[in-house]
Each structure stands twice: as structure tokens, then as C-alpha cells.
């Protein structure tokens, strides 16, 4: 991760530093979920490396008419140098990765959002530096794919990370918590899952949240879910409990007045626009190191 974050920082300063890396090559970008930041970041990252992005919607491919994921992966591998995937099921990314002969990058599934977390952590490093000892980093809200990614990435980086969520059906999955705990044993990270917003916010250097109703969430659960999550809204009062130099972060899109108040997200502690900018720098770093052979494996970060 240090390699990717260091390279992303270089691309933030000079986006065209490696403009020949993907010269005369294409990168397929397959998305079955709507996207603003991931699509813009992916296409721009490919272009800045000298390549041509080929954007594919779910209904652009023959998958909808019964062609297998495995066959699709083999076809894409014959035309592109890498594949970026944003979809629902993690198993689809895993199958694409297993059948492809090119790198496959997980740009979001219902289980995880690893490329977002790279953008988050380079933003955190810009603010606090690489020495994060004594600092606490808190995700607050729905125990969704972002909560899972937050715990796991924090564990990889040896951080003290907290997920403050409701208990029960909107808590993080036990399997994601177990994965983070296992990683933490080797990195020295501290992993906590709490069910009290104030406890999560207290003395934290970062308060991070996400929308409460994600793509695919059943509308029939909206009222119940919003009631359960209402105590976890990031308000000015909650920010007052954080460390004196704390920041607010959000993966966007945001619903002001729901998971975060306008005073916080549009206030001086908010780094959401720099965070969004780094979606490009980090995806660019991933592609750069993958096509050079510096990183190995399919379904990267999946």
C-alpha cells in the first residue's frame, strides 16, 4: 500500500509523469452501477497514462444474453491491458479475476470499495503525515461496504480504526470484522466496532461517513433504517468531540441533512473535494504498477 500511496502522491503533483505507460493500449472499464467519481477517475487515469479507456455498461455486453463471465473475461483479456470493474456482487469480480489473463481492479462491489480507501488514505497522509501513532480514525453510520473497506484498509496500514454503527442488521458483517482482526495481528493495528456515535467520535482525528441508503437497498426498509441510523448523523455537536485538528471525510454522493449536516460537510474541516480528486491519482498509481509488473495478481484489492 505504501508503494501505491507514494506513487499516487507523485501523480497528484504531475499527472502526466508516466504518459507513455499505456501508450497504444486500452483499458476496459465495466460498470453495472451508476458512477460519477469512479468513472471520471478511471477514464482520466487511463488517459493520463497515455492509454485509451473503453467504457462498457452492463447492457453493452453479451452477459445479459447468457454469455458466461468466464467467456467475457477471456474476450476482454484479448483486447485490453487491464479491466476495471464496478458492480454489485463480489463473486462477479472474483470470477472475472480468475478467468482473465490481465489485471482486474475492483472499483466497487456490495462487499468492498478498496480504490476509494486508497484515495481516503492519501488524503489522510497529506493532512497528518505517515506517522499515525496515537491517532484514531472513525467511520460512522451504515455498516456497509465502506465500513468493511475502512476496517480492512486501516488494519493493513496498522492504524487505530473504529466503525461506529447501529447494532444488528446494519452493523458490519462479521466476516469483514474477522478479516480486519486477522490482518491487525500482523500489523499492530487496533480494530474496534462500537454502537455509540459519541464513543466513536471522541478524540478521533477523522470522522468518515457514507450515505445511509446505498444502491440496491430495499425501499421497504428505508424508514426503519433511517430511524436506526439517525443517532449516527455527523453534526457540529459530534465534531466537537473529535481531536482539535480533526477532519471530516465522505466518499460521496452526500445527502446533507441526513448522514451529515451541511455545516460539517461544507465547513473548514471537510476535505471531501481533495479526497474525490485522489480517486484519479490512486487508480492511476494502481494501473501504473500493474502494467509494469510491479504488482501481481488478479482482482487487485478485491
Automatic annotation (TrEMBL):
Key words of the record: Transferase
InterPro entries: Asp/Orn_carbamoyltranf_P-bd, Asp/Orn_carbamoylTrfase, Asp/Orn_carbamoylTrfase_sf, Asp_carbamoyltransf_Asp/Orn-bd, Orn/put_carbamltrans
Gene Ontology MF annotations: amino acid binding; ornithine carbamoyltransferase activity
The UniProt record lists the keyword Transferase: yes
Start and end residues of each Aspartate/ornithine carbamoyltransferase carbamoyl-P binding domain: 3-126
Single GO BP term: citrulline biosynthetic process
Annotated ranges, domain Aspartate/ornithine carbamoyltransferase Asp/Orn-binding: 134-290
Pfam families associated with the record: OTCace, OTCace_N
PANTHER family assigned: ORNITHINE CARBAMOYLTRANSFERASE, MITOCHONDRIAL, ORNITHINE TRANSCARBAMYLASE, MITOCHONDRIAL
Protein name listed in UniProt: Unannotated protein
Higher taxonomy: unclassified sequences, metagenomes, ecological metagenomes
Amino acid at each position: 500500500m505504501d508503494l501505491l500511496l507514494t506513487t499516487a502522491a507523485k501523480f497528484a503533483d504531475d499527472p502526466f509523469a508516466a504518459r507513455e505507460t499505456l501508450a497504444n493500449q486500452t483499458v476496459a472499464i465495466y460498470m453495472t452501477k451508476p458512477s460519477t467519481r469512479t468513472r471520471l477517475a478511471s477514464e482520466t487515469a487511463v488517459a493520463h497514462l497515455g492509454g485509451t479507456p473503453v467504457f462498457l455498461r452492463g447492457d453493452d455486453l453479451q452477459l445479459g444474453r447468457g454469455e458466461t463471465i468466464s467467456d467475457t473475461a477471456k474476450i476482454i483479456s484479448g483486447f485490453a491491458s487491464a479491466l476495471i470493474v464496478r458492480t454489485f456482487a463480489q463473486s462477479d469480480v472474483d470470477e472475472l479475476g480468475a478467468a482473465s489473463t490481465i489485471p482486474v481492479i475492483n472499483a466497487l462491489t456490495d462487499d468492498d470499495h478498496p480504490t476509494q480507501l486508497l484515495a481516503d488514505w492519501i488524503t489522510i497522509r497529506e493532512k497528518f503525515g505517515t506517522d499515525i501513532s496515537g491517532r484514531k480514525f472513525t467511520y460512522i453510520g451504515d455498516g456497509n461496504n465502506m465500513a468493511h473497506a475502512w476496517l480492512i484498509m486501516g488494519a493493513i496500514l496498522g492504524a487505530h480504526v473504529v466503525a461506529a454503527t447501529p447494532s444488528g442488521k446494519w452493523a458490519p458483517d462479521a466476516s469483514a470484522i474477522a478479516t480486519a482482526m486477522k490482518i491487525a495481528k500482523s500489523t499492530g493495528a487496533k480494530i474496534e466496532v462500537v454502537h455509540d456515535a459519541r464513543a466513536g467520535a471522541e478524540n478521533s482525528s477523522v470522522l468518515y461517513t457514507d450515505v445511509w441508503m446505498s444502491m440496491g437497498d430495499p425501499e421497504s426498509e428505508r424508514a426503519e433504517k433511517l430511524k436506526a441510523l439517525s443517532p449516527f448523523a455527523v453534526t457540529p455537536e459530534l465534531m466537537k468531540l473529535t481531536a482539535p485538528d480533526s477532519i471530516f471525510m465522505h466518499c460521496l454522493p452526500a445527502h446533507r441533512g441526513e448522514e451529515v449536516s451541511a455545516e460539517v460537510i461544507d465547513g473548514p474541516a471537510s476535505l471531501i473535494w481533495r479526497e474525490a480528486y485522489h480517486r484519479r491519482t490512486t487508480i492511476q498509481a494502481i494501473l501504473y504498477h500493474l502494467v509494469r509488473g510491479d504488482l501481481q495478481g488478479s482482482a487487485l484489492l478485491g
